[in-house]
Design a protein that fits this description.
With about 300 residues, the chain is α+β, with helices and mostly antiparallel strands. It has two domains: about 120 residues, Probable inorganic polyphosphate/atp-NAD kinase, domain 1 (Rossmann fold), CATH 3.40.50; about 160 residues, Tumour Suppressor Smad4 (Sandwich). The strands form three sheets. Strands 6, 7, 8, 9, 10, 11, 12, 13, 14, 15 and 16 form an eleven-stranded antiparallel sheet that branches. Strands 2-1-3-4 form a four-stranded parallel sheet, with helices on both faces. The protein has a two-stranded antiparallel ribbon with strand order 5-17. The longest helix has 15 residues.
Length: about 300
């Protein structure tokens, strides 16, 4: 078995390359593992690296060293290959994916806790052919996510703070709602909507949790649809929404377990965010992917550790 560290050299506020090299050397020295470190060169490169190596058929374990975007890219290269599994070493500014593991999230920072960890299947979201691990969101949330990195580069903001700053700008100057057709398993409605969040996992935006009951291995997507609201109502809604308390606002938000979700716009492109990576399309189709991800982590870890009933 080979252990491949895919490192995003631009992730985070500090250069973490030497830290990762030291971890890899320790695995080679202390456990006699076949270890390789590869630096990404541009956006999408991690997917290319992982997919090409998976095609060899060799048994592989990948370590995505970066933030949520790096994890997403590696997952898109690994998903569907039975000879490969992945984990995450968080060195990025945004590490929402690992929040799903609760207190065990900190253990992912050390490869010594990972290399021989148990492997398990994890569901994935398919959005226009691209894979997401946690949440695919469209609407004001996605527009905010597109701005988060701008504020995340500031020493003033990080994590949830950068999300809140981007939210304020969009809230005050860019408007809340978009006019869409939304189709849930063939049932269509047309209206003005603030956001649609399709959840496999529970966290995004620096720790916001739209659907607390979402589980990453149950074969179900939890889709939260939020209609157009006034700025005053939206301001009251945001904090409960961030804590998974959308049920307090049944007049604004409804949660569904549709198998196929389609969003269509005839006015402007729909911005959709997948694990922090944004894209824009006039039509978005989201469903549970037929391809599961092989994931490994510290002994005893649970990707549903923070899920609520």
């Amino acid at each position: 078995m080979k252990h491949i560290f895919i490192i995003n050299p631009t992730a985070g506020k500090a250069d973490s390359r030497q830290k990762i090299y030291d971890m890899a050397d320790a695995l080679r020295r202390d456990h006699g593992l076949d270890v390789q470190c590869i630096l990404t060169k541009n956006q999408g490169h991690a997917t290319e690296i992982a997919r090409k190596l998976c095609e060899s058929g060799e048994e592989l374990r990948f370590y995505a060293c970066g933030g949520d975007g790096t994890a997403n890219e590696v997952a898109n290269g690994v998903v569907g290959y039975e000879n490969a599994a992945m984990t995450v070493i968080p060195v990025g500014t945004g590490n929402d994916f690992l929040k799903n593991f609760g207190e065990d999230a900190e253990k992912f920072r050390d490869a010594e806790n990972l290399w021989n960890g148990p492997q398990f299947h994890m569901d994935t979201i398919d959005c226009n052919g691209r894979i997401a691990l946690t949440i695919a969101c469209s609407g004001i949330d996605a527009r905010i996510a597109a701005d988060v990195h701008k504020y995340g580069d500031s020493p003033i903001f990080s994590g949830k703070g950068s999300y809140v700053a981007a939210l304020i700008v969009n809230f005050l100057f860019k408007g809340i709602a978009s006019h869409w057709k939304i189709e849930l398993d063939g049932e269509t409605a047309e209206d003005d909507y603030a956001l649609v969040a399709v959840c496999n996992g529970r966290y995004y935006g620096g720790g916001f949790m739209p659907v607390a009951e979402a589980r990453m291995d149950d074969g179900v997507l939890n889709t939260l649809v939020v209609k157009k609201v006034s700025r005053v109502s939206f301001a009251r809604f945001v904090t409960p929404y961030s804590k998974g308390e959308y049920r307090r606002f049944p007049q604004l938000a409804q949660c569904y377990t549709a198998k196929v979700i389609r969003i269509i716009s005839d006015k402007r492109d729909i911005v959709t965010c997948l694990d922090g990576e944004c894209m824009a399309n006039s039509e978005v189709t989201i469903r549970m992917s037929e391809r599961q991800l092989n994931f490994f982590g510290p002994a005893g870890c649970d990707c549903n550790a923070t899920a609520r009933e």
